[in-house]
Amino acid sequence: MYTYGPATVRELSYRGQPGEHSMRIAIGSHAPQIELIQPLTGPIQPLTGPSIFHECLDQRGQGFHHLGVYVDCLDTAVNDMASAGYDVLQSGRGTGADGSGGYAYFSTEEDLSIILEAVVVPGRRREPEAVWD
Question: For a Cys staple, 91 with which of 72, 104, 125, 131, CB 3.0–4.6 Å?
Fold first, then answer.
């Protein structure tokens, strides 16, 4: 389990503006990888802002949110998706302990009925906050 937010991710964006969202994420270690994501609000993370996860909970409740694909370069993925007409909904860069890694969620729901995420795995992950067997 990891917490991503202003304290752990170098650069956050939300709908084209600087972001201040925080989320706790539990990542599985087997294929297919499943993520459990909890948007953080209130006293746990005072610097949390709106996010696509808050939107999803407000509009549809809990459930399947997105499909992620691994990419080599986030900038290339963002440019390719923009060329195809898809905006970045939310992103983060610098998710790893070494400042590498990142993600971007795209506005693909109208065409694909799901949000698509591009993920660059960090060269070195931070130590997890918790581990379950």
Answer: 104
